[in-house]
């Protein structure tokens, strides 16, 4: 009863607030997405994502090195091939000399302690922009896509990837990738599965960066309906049972309830992807002076951690790592 209960006592000073803080965000929680393109000396800014650029492998190494110096210990690489290199089967995704294997080898040679993940999907490599090969009727052929995803995962593991992260949302792809990795002599490579990936409006800037927008239709036939919550637990469970080492929810901010559900249901690490649209909204508001970039970014990421995410993929990673270092976090 008031006045005996005064919660404000423990908020009165910064030292008290730090002592009783329940959720802590650290640089070790962050994974930095990078976009690799062919060529040399290429740094091509993404207009819809301030401070984010497509980079040739040599420039990508510079970007990863800066992130490492800031305290970021993990990156995830997305390949962006030349438009003329795309085909119906997305073969560039599983070429052993493709852009992603080259980026992985370069990063691991120069920064052996950096954890280098690779996204596994066909959308950036197919001429039609969908995440799998198509049937004659023009729909995505789930089962015909699985061996191609597995080939890509093996190619990335052979190049030295520390994790492969299938984002395609094909049924059964985790099992197919696990069997392929083990059969190719890579049982040590974990699978970070995009398990609850929603057909979200927040992917637009990423598709600008990865040149991966579908040329017809959309991806609602394989990505999840944003209205569904129970279905997410089913998807998470299936990937867990197929051998996923880490389960991911994407996007993060609009799906904090799904992150919390995943944390409560599974005893493996839970990842969340603060996607391009989430990043873009904060950056656009910050540019106009409507929000403070630093406070908004830290608050949004802390909320994702508070919901239960152990790992967060975010384009803010280098900046946030620097801010946390300034705060002594």
What does this structure look like?
The chain is an alpha/beta fold and 329 residues long. It has a single domain (26-327), classed as Aldolase class I (TIM Barrel, Alpha-Beta Barrel). It is built from 11 helices and 10 strands. It has helices at residues 14-19, 57-70, 99-110, 142-159, 173-183, 204-210, 230-242, 256-265, 276-287, 293-307, 317-327; strands at 30-37, 43-45, 53-56, 74-79, 115-120, 163-166, 192-197, 246-250, 270-273, 311-313. Strands 1, 2, 3, 4, 5, 6, 7, 8, 9 and 10 form a 10-stranded mixed sheet that branches. The longest helix has 18 residues, at 142-159.
Report the CATH C-level class. Answer: Alpha Beta
CATH hierarchy: architecture:
Alpha-Beta Barrel
Can you summarize the main beta sheet? 10 strands, mixed
Find the count of extended strands (DSSP E, 2+ residues).
10
**First and last CA, distance:** 35 Å
The secondary-structure element order is: HEEEHEHEHEHEHHEHEHHEH
**Low-confidence spans: pLDDT under 50, at least 5 residues?**
none
How helical, in percent, are the residues? 25-40%
> What is the percentage of strand-forming residues?
5-15%
Silhouette? globular
Structural class: alpha/beta
